[in-house]
Amino acid sequence: MNELDDIPKDHLSGSLRRGAVKKHVAAIHVSGKLTLLQRKLSNVLLLNAYDTLISQQVHRIDARTLCLMIGYNSNDMDTLKQSLRGLAETVAEWDMLDSEGKQEWGISSLLSYAKLKGGVCEYAYSPALAEKLNDPKVFALINLNIQRRFTSGHALALYENCYRFVRTGSTGWWSLDLFRRLMGVADSDYYEVFKHLNAKIIKPAVAEVNKSSNIMVTPEFKKMGRSVTEIRFRIGENPQLAILDLDDGEGLRKSPVYARLLALGVSDRLARQWITEHGEDYVRQKVDYVAGQGAVKNAIGYLSAALKDDYRPERSDKVSPRNPAPDPALAERVKQLTVIRDLAASRTPTQRDADKRLFLSRLEGSERDDFERHGWMSALNAAAIAAFWRELSPDAFEV
Question: Most CB contacts within 10 A, which of 45, 130, 309, 374?
């Protein structure tokens, strides 16, 4: 039995079904001092509460699920308490134009209160901050699947502050004082020296954003004499976005032909690329064709040629070396992958995230790396994945 099966469903917000959280410029610009875990916690709490920010004063989420979503040990309530305390002690400050064009300044703690009771985390925002968080005009979409890839709070802070400018292509010029505040190092004399700021904050943060997210950022500097006084970031889409596991089993990964491709040894990225380029029906026809050729030394290479040159089967009603009977082992593997895909897709986003974290806790080394790249379609972990899902839903495999 999965440990999340007993989560009270009325403690989970329907907005957790989303894959991204909208963050207001005020919330983004004031959270520079938050640790990486606090920043992630802030985003998940906002996602959980978003649908009822104005209509509901108090929000709730299962504490164990919250820990798993953020990356805490699910039993480490002390760390969760410390992070919640940090959010309640952090002041949000906004300085912006209201709907009538009048300047508005305000402050609020990020959380007005939080408490843990009976395995449930209960929390609230101040009415003023909730109103700002609910304003749709100046939000950036923070993808929680991308957020989980960050290992540095400075990098995640840079990502949040740059992503909302992706359509304009540039953040515009920021003073170094503002930038240091956004990164949470405004109180450090060490980072008053640009050489230190560049080496320890800017370069590492840029490198991680470009490696781990769906955007590419490039810093540019403005000088007064020999001194750097302002910074801005050029922003573009990351061409590596296709390899990021952003849909958690949605989209192309739901396709039956996707499971068949992975059963042949095709990588996650290549499988999605072929389906996108050629369409499901065409790819399925070529997979059927390759399956009909018997034992092929390089099935992936042969399939690639079949897709490119539109190989077609010879008409024959007989089983022959060119048109053999289906491979039972391959058919069973495809069936198993299909069951696992459907089981994972049937879980709520919260449960899917927890399932992955529970399974990841059992892996090390190359097995862990392969699962992080390919998820439940990881060929290297096929046996362990099947055992994991059989334990959760044994009846699903008895069809």
Answer: 45
